[in-house]
């Protein structure tokens, strides 16, 4: 079981983990950890970036045969493994299995010690162990020029990425970015979805580290040939081929080079991206040529103001049509900050809606007396980058809205009122550019963290409790949610829990659930969980786990229980002078009525592949939610509170079959003979 837990943990961290971090999580000393790792073929220990690292691996493989009479490999659809099978939606369905626990697959997984992995963890493991990803082109990594010595140039089916970059740091002129056109297209052609693109560097680095050491060293007899010579084309095919290659047509540059703006680009004039000293560049088309517009910074400042439709000056630019008189205008920029969060001077896009007074309101702000929306600019931008034609739902106050990216219209789903939406960049001046380029960054990997987190206080491992001032919007919003059903109690403090690992796994789970539901947004709620103070650290560090905390009442299934209303969870927050209650983000998804026998949500169709995401006490008016997968939970806030001296104790509790462990991590059983009266509903949907 220890090996299964370790391999699951490693796969949850993109296939590899630092040895010391892994040892610390499982509470083992160096000798015991080495002993566990050495007993299994599922682990390899290597030095990566100067640190001892544990990499997950397996000898299990996907069967490639179309009509296999029987073999010891997994019979599983590759597209389903990667996250989405287009054939499953067709009339005939997919002819390959989508069932991990089929009669063929379960024995194979058990034999390799992988029977406890879910499909997303198995995907990580097979991507870096089986040959599912395109191989790195070694010809590209030898020789000079844009394509090295690769005879296929841009038509090559192998990956044009720098090998040295995969093994560590490198400042050569070869590709160091999986989002460059050739690597991106090659991976997409092999079925790699956009959701997996951010971890490609990790997976390919793991693949490099798993290779036999002699393959990392060039041959002493012929050092120019490089590693893995058997995968090369005959050397005679290289000679003179670069000279015979037809001249390449000029590539239209539609994006600003992040390497140039950071400092320097070794590709020089041959770079396929625009070189600019600013992260934006305005151009006008004269004939067949795009020419830079004067007053670049002035135009940009006008464009960043959402209320402006035209630029200032004599020759005005119409921002809605992107024209200047009869001429077309375009704006080149760096990539969106949500796509490449580790780079400096990426473009941060802000989203606004126009109210009835013509005021442009940024999302997730409570300006001009409007309710705070449940979705922020960064979250909208992430959804927009994933699918620019999507329709997104969110809430603000008691209302639910839909936002169409194609129409840029926000509609109230109850009253059908419509508002105009605009997406504009955050303004960055030339002075800002100089400051950003000369400021040392504290962290290099802050991807996927919420905008409102204090990045400087976010540790690489573990968690940090950040105390919120009582004047902060977060504090006010959470305390109002708490006080909806907890009148007569005093909030002592509210802490934000900043745990990088839990947040990234939570976002990953959200993406997986969205893909499983064919692109529909996953229902996410803010729910309460009362607990004993002694469990606060464990939950903040490792998330909820009912198997560790124990269960003493399983009315709707054996899982972690959460409440819509704080007063229900209050019954299970132990009084030690001050009580503790978590406010959690919970991916409830598609739910159904629970049952005490459930170890997981039931099947939707009676089969063994499509399941509900959670269970509830009442399908039509749910107030209790049961979650069986801890990755569907993020413990976002911790409220410490106490009974006010003038208030009477709250006596309302859930129905008799629900015990203290349902909303807490305590061990006593509390029952009630009568059903409590319904409380006012908390506005807790995030969307």
Shape: globular
Q: Summarize the main sheet.
A: 6 strands, antiparallel
Determine the fraction of residues in helical runs and give it as a percent range.
Answer: 10-25%
Mean pLDDT: 81
Strand content: 15-25%
Q: How many separate helices?
A: 19
Distance between the termini: 37 Å
Instruction: Tell me the number of strands.
Output: 22
Q: Within the largest sheet, what's the order of strands?
A: 9-8-13-12-11-10
Please mark out the parts with pLDDT under 50 across 5 or more consecutive residues, or reply none. 213-248, 442-447, 646-687
Structural class: alpha+beta
From the alpha carbons, calculate the radius of gyration and give it in angstroms.
28 Å
């Amino acid at each position: 079981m220890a090996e299964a837990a370790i391999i699951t943990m490693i796969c949850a961290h993109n296939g590899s983990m630092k040895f010391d971090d892994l040892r610390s999580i499982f509470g083992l000393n160096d000798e015991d950890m080495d002993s566990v790792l050495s007993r299994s073929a599922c682990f390899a220990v290597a030095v990566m970036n100067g640190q001892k690292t544990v990499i997950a691996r397996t000898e299990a493989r996907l069967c490639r045969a179309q009509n296999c009479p029987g073999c010891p490999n997994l019979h599983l659809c590759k597209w389903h493994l990667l996250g989405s099978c287009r054939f499953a939606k067709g009339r005939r369905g997919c002819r390959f299995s989508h069932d991990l626990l089929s009669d063929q697959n379960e024995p194979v997984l058990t034999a390799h010690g992988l029977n406890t992995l879910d499909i997303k963890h198995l995907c990580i493991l097979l991507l870096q162990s089986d040959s599912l990803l395109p191989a790195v082109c070694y010809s590209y990594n030898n020789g000079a020029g844009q394509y090295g010595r690769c005879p296929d140039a841009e038509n090559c089916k192998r990956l044009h990425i720098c090998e040295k970059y995969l093994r560590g740091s490198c400042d050569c002129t070869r590709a160091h970015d999986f989002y460059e056109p050739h690597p991106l297209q090659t991976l997409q052609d092999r079925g790699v979805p956009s959701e997996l693109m951010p971890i490609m560097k990790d997976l390919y680095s793991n693949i490099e580290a798993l290779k036999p050491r002699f393959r990392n060293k060039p041959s002493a007899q012929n050092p120019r040939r490089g590693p893995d010579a058997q995968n090369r084309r005959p050397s005679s095919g290289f000679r003179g081929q670069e000279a015979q290659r037809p001249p390449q047509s000029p590539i239209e540059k539609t994006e600003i080079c992040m390497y140039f703006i950071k400092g320097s680009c070794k590709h020089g004039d041959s770079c396929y991206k625009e070189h600019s000293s600013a992260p934006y560049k305005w151009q006008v088309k004269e004939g067949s040529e795009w020419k830079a517009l004067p007053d670049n910074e002035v135009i940009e400042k006008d464009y960043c103001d959402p209320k402006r439709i035209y630029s200032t000056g004599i020759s005005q630019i119409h921002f809605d049509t992107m024209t200047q008189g009869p001429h077309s205008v375009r704006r080149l920029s760096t990539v969106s900050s949500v796509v490449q969060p580790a780079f400096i001077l990426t473009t941060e896009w802000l989203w606004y809606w126009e109210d009835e007074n013509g005021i442009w309101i940024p999302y997730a702000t409570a300006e001009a007396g409007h309710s705070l929306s449940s979705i922020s600019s960064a979250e909208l931008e992430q959804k927009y980058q994933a699918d620019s034609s999507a329709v997104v739902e969110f809430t603000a106050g008691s209302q639910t809205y839909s936002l169409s990216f194609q129409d840029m219209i926000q509609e109230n789903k109850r009253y059908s009122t419509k508002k105009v939406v605009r997406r504009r960049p955050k303004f960055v001046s030339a002075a800002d550019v100089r400051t950003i380029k000369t400021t040392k960054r504290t962290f290099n990997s802050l991807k996927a963290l919420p905008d409102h987190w204090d990045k400087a206080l976010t540790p690489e491992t573990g968690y940090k409790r950040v105390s919120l001032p009582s004047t902060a919007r977060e504090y006010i919003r959470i305390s109002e949610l708490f006080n909806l059903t907890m009148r007569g109690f005093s909030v002592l403090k509210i802490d934000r829990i900043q745990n990088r690992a839990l947040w990234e796994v939570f976002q990953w789970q959200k993406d997986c659930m969205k893909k499983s539901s064919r692109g529909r947004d996953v229902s996410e709620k803010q729910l309460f969980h009362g607990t004993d103070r002694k469990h606060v650290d464990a939950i903040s560090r490792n998330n909820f786990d009912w198997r560790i905390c124990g269960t003493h009442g399983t009315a709707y299934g054996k899982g972690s229980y959460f409440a819509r209303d704080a007063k229900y969870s209050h019954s299970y927050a132990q009084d030690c002078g001050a009580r503790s209650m978590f406010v959690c983000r919970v991916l409830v998804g598609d739910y159904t009525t629970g049952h005490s026998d459930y170890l997981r949500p039931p099947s939707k169709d009676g089969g063994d592949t499509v399941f509900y995401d959670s269970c509830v006490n009442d399908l039509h008016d749910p107030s209790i939610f049961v979650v069986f997968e801890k990755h569907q939970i993020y413990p976002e806030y911790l409220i410490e509170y106490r009974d006010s001296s003038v208030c009477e104790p709250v006596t309302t509790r859930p129905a008799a079959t629900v015990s203290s462990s349902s909303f807490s991590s305590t061990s006593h059983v509390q029952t009630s003979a009568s059903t409590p009266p319904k409380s006012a509903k908390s506005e807790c949907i995030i969307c």
